[in-house]
Amino acid sequence: xxxxxxxxxxxxxxxxxxxxxxxxxxxxxxxxxxxxxxxxxxxxxxxxxxxxxxxxxxxxxxxxxxxxxxxxxxxxxxxxxxxxxxxxxxxxxxxxxxxxxxxxxxxxxxxxxxxxxxxxxxxxxxxxxxxxxxxxxxxxxxxxx
Length: 145
Hints:
- The protein is elongated.
- The chain is built from 4 helices and no strands.
- The model has no long low-confidence stretch (mean pLDDT 85).
- With 145 residues, the protein is mainly α.
- It has helices at residues 14-26, 29-44, 53-95, 111-139.
């Protein structure tokens, strides 16, 4: 019996829990509408403040701070998601008979090695496509639509 990691929140770090919740909440339509409302309120108040430097500074500072913080939260959740996908793909590759197990750790290769591997697989795909086309021709089949 293989052991699998616990998936409940108590085993995640506080920052991870926070980042995931913020990422989920920030993607909701209501949050987008709130952001639009803030921008509209700011724009409407422009004439009240004679479009002053302070009025402009409020929106610039607010958006800069939010953007700066969101970059870290989004990067954290994206890194976790990518790692989870890599783990799942590695499991699939290792479980498949005939699969090249070297691909299970492809993310550890250098950029140059990945480019060479990509070129190799592109060539294999083209060869397979040509082979399939030849088989279809020999059987009198037309290309699938």
